[in-house]
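A student in our group prepared the protein record below, which I am reviewing. Thanks in advance; the entry in question is below.
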Amino acid sequence: MLPPEKFTILPNTAGCYTADDAVRTLRLARELLDGHALVKLEVLGDPRNLFPNMPETLKAAETLVKDGFDVMVYCADDPIQAKMLEDIGCCAIMPLASLIGSGMGIINPWNLRLIIDNAKVPVLVDAGVGTASDAAIAMELGCDGVLMNTAIAAAGKPVLMASAMRKAVEAGREAFLAGRMPRKFYTADPSSPTQGLIGS
């Protein structure tokens, strides 16, 4: 139905709870797609909160990279484990902003920024985006992209939300590239000139 020569199909191991199941799933996907190597690795640890099982994720990533896959990996927002995944050879790191489908936005921007600052591969926020401002914040922090589904699919007007998300990603990226002004705590800095005022 979706010709691979027209669309990039990204096999995903959503629903896998062990490294073995994830590896088997992606090997089958590669066979079905005539050797397609780009995949998304996702090894879950809990069916209720869908938080990643990081020991199993690391194990699966190592096997898949050695097997010639280009692995984009869903992971916890843990800077140490994110760096471990990069060192294994994953081509993109995809930390959660908050729980999958929660729409809670970026819970811990500091961890996300640590991951971004230490990474030499693309960092994409995966999971938790709820609205356009969440996407803009992710991009302003320096993410290379945002993966989203539920925020658009569950919106009252999905097509309109998709349009808002696109604009937010573009605006956030431009803001990151422009470089925000430094924050000044407890000090004001007037934007209007102070020279030439009466009495001064």
Q: What stands out?
A: Residues 98 and 128 are 4 Å apart (CA to CA). Helices lie at 19-32, 54-66, 79-88, 109-118, 132-141, 150-153, 158-178. The longest strand covers residues 70-75. The beta strands are 38-41, 70-75, 92-95, 124-126, 145-147.
